[in-house]
């Protein structure tokens, strides 16, 4: 765990450096509020661990990891506006703190800083652009054409959450100069982790305590959003079982990867197991 915390600290340090470089001051304050309000930094950790698994170093992947965290944060800023959620990561959401206009500008600023970090590699830029297209389709589907079956829900989860997880791992593989087969295998691993994460998130929204979770609960039901609990007839226990099945298939995808750092690969396995057992 000490090694993992060292990676997390490296990501946090670089994230602070990027945020501190934002101009003008007003935008910097707004970006700081959104980006540095906490968070598990799961996606950048996936980037770094994927890179190390296939022979790269943490330094190779940290900028891409920070970039995907900024993209994720930008999406959360918009999500909170859509959901009218006043709480994010245990503090006020961007729109609740600064207003709707500044929050939208904050999201734009986060994306701009992110793509500045990806701009050194056309493959990285393409991966993230494709992920944002999938995310956009997923968000639009959620608002306009709600899924009615478990299969449709899973497609939505892959677009809304899995896409950015996939991009995170593929970025790590790209940073290590991996071949396309390796990039795809790590991408599948992370996409399935993302789907498992989303299923668990839906279950927590339905059953967890808001203070424990660090954000309001019951939002999916109140806004009639398509959570796994609402779309399907699954009980929370059955939904958790679906999440564990996705986690297991994610771990299977890692078997197609030629591993250079077994310890880093083991952390990826632990992450796949953690996302379905987490309590917040």
From TrEMBL:
> Can the keyword Metal-binding be found in this entry's annotation?
yes
**Under the GO molecular function aspect, what terms does this record hold?**
metal ion binding; prenyltransferase activity
Give cofactor(s), names only: Mg(2+)
Record's superkingdom? Archaea
Q: Which GO terms describe its biological process?
A: isoprenoid biosynthetic process
The family database entries (PROSITE patterns) matched by this protein are listed as: POLYPRENYL_SYNTHASE_1 (PS00723), POLYPRENYL_SYNTHASE_2 (PS00444)
Keywords assigned by UniProt? Isoprene biosynthesis, Magnesium, Metal-binding, Transferase
SUPFAM superfamilies reported for this sequence:
Terpenoid synthases (SSF48576)
UniProt similarity note? Belongs to the FPP/GGPP synthase family.
Task: Tell me what this protein is called.
Answer: Polyprenyl synthetase family protein
| Species in which this protein is naturally found | Haloterrigena alkaliphila
